[in-house]
């Protein structure tokens, strides 16, 4: 018997997928890279407090003139340090901005993507740059049909430009495209604004706060706790 999810999205032929927060555990990655730096300067923040502070500065920087993601991370650290009244060393700035390649994939990401790939084309729309995505994809190990990075679009989600560029490359009717992502702010709001249905991979399910993303309001078309659950549901025929 076909599941409700499989029926609801039966016409979809391509999944556009976010990377950081959806496939890559960027909250652990960010915290593990930043926490030792802050501690070395006498500051101890909870995981949620640190992530929320980073989210505030990162999103503000991404909304401004284009910077590489490495520059975004370095400046975010400078601003966090300014808030806490210390000055990071050049080594600390470099360490944090080069940490992306060490951020781990969620344990279900690879198997779920390989299963989904049997039925759908897979497209990445990521706020990372080309180099960082290549490093992260070593943890994921999947060959995607399309890869659209912030470096290529010269903009960061939630800019609609990232979605327009992706849709232009894929040349698929919006009715055939389903966007799959964790961040309501970066992904669901703009994806729905360009006419896409969305699936929320709510990796923070049951936890308070918004973690590494700013607060946003959106109503996804479906919600799952992880990518494996989504794959099982949409492939259930």
Report on the architecture of this protein.
- The protein is an alpha/beta fold.
- The chain folds into two domains: 4-25 and 104-235, Rossmann fold; 27-102, Orthogonal Bundle (DNA polymerase, domain 1), CATH 1.10.150.750.
- The protein contains eleven helices and six strands.
- The chain has a six-stranded parallel beta sheet.
- Helix 3 crosses helix 4 (69-84), helix 4 crosses helix 5 (90-97) and helix 6 packs parallel to helix 11.
- The longest helix has 16 residues, at 47-62.
- The model has no long low-confidence stretch (mean pLDDT 95).
- Write down the Rg: 18 Å
What's the order of the H and E elements?
A: HEHHHHHEHEHHEHEEH
Structure summary, number of beta strands:
6
Q: Span from first to last CA? A: 6 Å
Look at the structure and give the CATH class of the largest domain: Alpha Beta
CATH architecture of the largest domain: 3-Layer(aba) Sandwich
Strand order of the largest sheet: 3-2-1-4-5-6
Give the domain tally: 2
Largest sheet properties: 6 strands, parallel
The average pLDDT value, as a whole number, equals 95
CATH topology of the largest domain: Rossmann fold
Question: Which class do the helix and strand fractions yield?
Answer: alpha/beta
Bulk shape = globular
Roughly what fraction of the amino acids lie in strands? 5-15%
What's this entry about, in short?
This protein has helices at 4-8, 26-40, 47-62, 69-84, 90-97, 109-116, 130-140, 150-153, 160-170, 184-193, 227-234, and strands at 14-17, 121-126, 146-149, 177-181, 197-201, 222-224. The protein has 237 residues and is an alpha/beta fold.
């Amino acid at each position: 018997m076909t599941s409700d999810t499989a029926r609801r999205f039966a016409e979809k032929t391509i999944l556009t997928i976010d990377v950081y927060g959806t496939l890559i555990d960027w909250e652990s990655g960010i915290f593990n890279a930043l926490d030792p730096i802050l501690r070395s300067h006498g500051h101890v923040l909870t995981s949620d407090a640190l992530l929320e502070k980073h989210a505030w500065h990162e999103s503000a920087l991404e909304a401004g003139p284009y910077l590489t993601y490495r520059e975004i991370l370095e400046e975010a650290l400078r601003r966090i340090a300014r808030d806490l009244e210390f000055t990071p060393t050049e080594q600390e700035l470099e360490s944090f901005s080069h940490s992306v390649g060490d951020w781990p994939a969620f344990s279900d990401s690879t198997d779920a993507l390989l299963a989904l790939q049997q039925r759908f084309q897979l497209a990445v729309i990521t706020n990372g740059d080309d180099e960082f995505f290549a490093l992260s994809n070593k943890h994921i190990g999947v060959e995607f049909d399309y890869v659209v990075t912030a470096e290529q679009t010269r903009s960061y989600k939630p800019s609609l430009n990232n979605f327009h560029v992706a849709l232009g490359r894929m040349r698929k009717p919006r009715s055939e495209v389903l966007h799959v992502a964790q961040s309501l702010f970066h992904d669901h709001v703009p994806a729905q604004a360009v006419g896409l249905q969305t699936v929320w991979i709510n990796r923070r399910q049951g936890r308070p706060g918004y973690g590494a993303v700013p607060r946003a309001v959106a109503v996804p078309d479906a919600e799952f706790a992880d990518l494996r659950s989504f794959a099982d549901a949409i492939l259930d025929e």
